[in-house]
Amino acid sequence: MDYNTLRQLADSVGLAAMAVLFVVLCFWPFRPGSKSANNKVANSIFEDTDDGE
Q: What does each C-alpha distance from 48 to 7, 32, 38, 44 come to in angstroms?
């Protein structure tokens, strides 16, 4: 295999892999079982506030 063949393979397969990864990561927070985990993380900034008052 020469450089041009490897480059074309990396361009095509790499682009497809990055596109699939992007779609998966965009929809990961919206999967059915993640509502409780999302709520816990979203409200974690309000827990254990020790501001001295």
A: 52, 28, 18, 8
Longest alpha-carbon distance in the chain = 69
Q: What is the pLDDT of residues 1-36, one digit of tens each?
A: 899 999 998 899 999 999 999 999 999 999 998 999
How much is the CA Rg of the chain, to the nearest whole Å?
21
Task: Kindly give, in sequence order, each residue whose CB lies less than 8 Å from that of residue 29, ignoring residues fewer than 6 positions away.
Answer: 38
Are residues 42 and 33 in contact, defined by beta-carbon separation less than 8 angstroms?
A: no
- Give the separation between CA 39 and CA 43, rounded to whole angstroms: 6
